[in-house]
Design a protein that fits this description.
Elements lengths: L16 E3 L4 E8 L5 E9 L4 E7 L5 E6 L2 E6 H5 L8 E4 L2 E4 L1
Antiparallel strand pairs: 1-4, 2-3, 2-6, 4-5, 5-6, 7-8
Length: 99
Amino acid sequence: MYLDSLFIPACTSEEPAYTLSDEIAAFQIIPTESGAARFGPVLRLPAGSQLHACGDGFNERTLKVRCNGSFYFVFLQDLDAQRKHPSSVTYFDGDLLWN
């Protein structure tokens, strides 16, 4: 696990968005009273949700995103499976780029 990945970043609305075409699993990131963060439950983000990329995931197969004011880790393979909308997600040198 990347040690610095479990924090809540200051995402702004200017970050590129991706609209889910199908629901996906996501690990919720929950703030603690001390200002740190911890893993929350695994949830399903519904189709139509807008995801904003916010940083690295907890490993090389995940990405940190913001959705409806909450933060999550999602699996890149779940986003890759939704590449039915190539204008939303593209890859460059193996890295995920958001359009």
